[in-house]
Amino acid sequence: MLMNKRIIITFFILLALLFPIIMPNSYYLYIMSLSFIWIIAVYGLNIVAGYTGYLSLAHAGFFAIGAYAFGLLTTKTEIGFWPAFILAPIITTAIGTLIGLVSLRTKEHFFAIYTLCVGYIIYLVIDKWESLTGGVRGLIGIPALPDLGPISLSAPTSQYYFVLFIMLWMVFIAYRLVHSLVGRTLIAIRNSETLALSLGISTTKNKLLSFMLSTFYAGVAGTLYASFIRFLGPEISSTTIMFDLLTYLIVGGIGTLSGPIVGTLLIVWTSQTLQFLQDYRMLIFGPLLTLIIIYSPRGIVGFISGLFRNRKARKKVAAVQVEKQV
Amino acid sequence: MFLETRNLTKSFGGLTAVKEVDFSVDKGKINAIIGPNGAGKSTFFNLISGVHKPTSGQIKFKGEDITKLPANKIAKLGMARTFQTTSLFENATIIENVMVGHRLRTKSNLFDAVFNTKRLRNEERESYNKALEVLEFVGLLDVKDQLVANISQEEKKRTAIALALATEPEIVFLDEPTAGINPEETAALAQLIRKMSENGLTVCLIEHKMQMVMSLAEKIMVLNYGEKIAEGTPEEIQKNEQVIKAYLGGSVHA
């Protein structure tokens, strides 16, 4: 099983690496790079909503904070591209920590509603604070990726690899986290906070940690987005983006490790192919989402791994029966 | 005194769920709290384990005042508990569920997780071994790799006890450990509870099944309408007029 998993993962990484060669189409590369950025953001949402059980609806807001932090640092200060690139996610996490301290005093749907409001306030601040953010006109003039030593990062292909590289790191960190004692702690909180507390787990500390980490992911994604698109408008913090991220996560599989990748790629590419339907696309996504929530609450990945687990369990039962007969 | 409460009171609005209860747990023994439905047994447990904060009164554990401590700090002092319904992670195996029980004795943080440090690997192994140890103790070692979703109610109860034991407690509170399982399984669980006591653990349980409590417990407290109406050995409790009245439906105030 483990062997199989390794082979599958290597295959997909290879596929991702060869993608620009298989599809030397700069538009496809653009869509793919953008998907990778969304994937990073969705992983952040997965940590807090999927593994800790706290549905943060301010996630798009933090994504926007990351993007604007980077945009403002590069256009309005002289600190340079790379320092801004590192500073922007840190700023996002710092703001996230402050908001987490307050919002985590609420629970369940109250938390969701509270963070939804936080997200909207972030949108309003970006939209109305024209002197800083440029308001509805947006923020322009964000510099392109500078060359990294001898490596040029201006061509679509090299940008693709750059985003892919960072995404793989972020996925790797999520993998390490989920499979560690820290991840188990978060899952214990998701299952039952009272039980986790009675097991001696400081839920306050761990929830804040999870929230901070999710905003860090949002910040990284936002920073990449800003450096990739090079134009920012307040709509990136809108509820539309928020629910897009949530849809990617739920379709792929909330609380699963590969769910964000599966969900994001699937929906981004389906909506690309269904572009001719314009807004009627939602007629397909709406029912799809409803069906998934009803029949497979852990998304496509949860459904598939459920199939595998059942088969494995049946094999085990069969083996035990054979043993008994002998 | 190992664990004692003094004048412990909890009111929810106008309702007094637990009223001025003085109670003490003897070290190394099996203690039980019984009482009719709604007598305040679970609330009393929740007060001791820090899930609820008492309105007034005091709780002392190993001579330390724990009245105001949060539940997680109390657990670290060596007090574990189970719940009437344990919410386990259904999509994970038994051992994966139990491993987290040892988390409070480990120190790994986010940094350790991201860099997969030696400390993390050691502590993971430690947690795994602890889980193996307690699963063997409760008799679930051969099913440790089963998904919790596929195991029986009785096995879930045992898993919950294993989870409590993984915290390395000195005292374990069991909230209706045999609710919803058949007589045979109840006897087997009683056996397990006795084994815990023989291994030096102090046990305190809430139970409805009279027969089991009478044969198992060495000291019993009876609660009714939030008040302690009797305390003593099983023989003493069985003869107590007030207890009989409470259980036969007569009013204590009559």
Summarize the structure.
By secondary structure, chain A is mainly α. Chain A has helices spanning 2-22, 26-51, 59-76, 81-103, 108-128, 130-133, 156-178, 181-191, 193-198, 203-229, 239-252, 259-273, 282-295, 299-325. In chain B, strands 6-7-8-3-9-10 form a 6-stranded mixed β-sheet, with helices on both faces. A 4-stranded antiparallel β-sheet of chain B has the order 2-1-4-5, with helices on one face.
Layout of SSEs?
The complex is a heterodimer of chains A (326) and B (254).
Chain A: H1 2-22, H2 26-51, H3 59-76, H4 81-103, H5 108-128, H6 130-133, H7 156-178, H8 181-191, H9 193-198, H10 203-229, H11 239-252, H12 259-273, H13 282-295, H14 299-325
Helix pairs in contact in A: 2-7, 2-10, 2-11, 2-12, 3-4, 3-5, 3-10, 4-10, 8-10, 11-12, 11-14
Chain B: E1 3-12, E2 15-25, E3 30-34, H1 41-48, E4 56-61, E5 64-65, H2 71-76, E6 79-81, H3 94-99, H4 110-115, H5 118-138, H6 153-165, E7 171-175, H7 183-198, E8 202-206, H8 210-216, E9 219-224, E10 227-232, H9 234-239, H10 241-248
Parallel strand pairs in B: 3-8, 3-9, 6-7, 7-8
Antiparallel strand pairs in B: 1-2, 1-4, 4-5, 9-10
Sum up the structure in keywords.
heterodimer; A: 326 residues; mainly alpha; 14 helices; B: 254 residues; alpha/beta; 23% strand
Order of helices and strands of chain B: EEEHEEHEHHHHEHEHEEHH
Enumerate how many helices of chain B there are, as a single number: 10
Query: Roughly how much helix do the residues of chain B carry, as a percent range?
Result: 25-40%
Could you tell me which chain pair has the largest interface and how many residues each side has? Answer: A-B, 27 and 41 residues
Note poorly predicted spans of chain A: none
